[in-house]
Amino acid sequence: xxxxxxxxxxxxxxxxxxxxxxxxxxxxxxxxxxxxxxxxxxxxxxxxxxxxxxxxxxxxxxxxxxxxxxxxxxxxxxxxxxxxxxxxxxxxxx
Length: 94
What we know:
This protein is α+β, with helices and mostly antiparallel strands and 94 residues long. Helices cover 39% and strands 29% of the residues. It contains three helices and six strands, in the order αββαβββαβ. The radius of gyration is 18 Å and the shape is globular.
């Protein structure tokens, strides 16, 4: 009986671990001076989506974190540099 319970637990554990491993990360988790491709802009705030779009941050575009100063992220998108706050960086899924 204990083996059955343990097998069910282990199956759930490994399937959740796989899900977490496949999970996409946001720009706050990026390494500095590494180019990433934007997978999605994840926010419910339409103003944030529109603002990031005007910067050139949309699906398929390359983005690089140049530096992080406090809660400001200096990013490079389309040969331009921008300073964005943590909230904007968290919305950019890479």
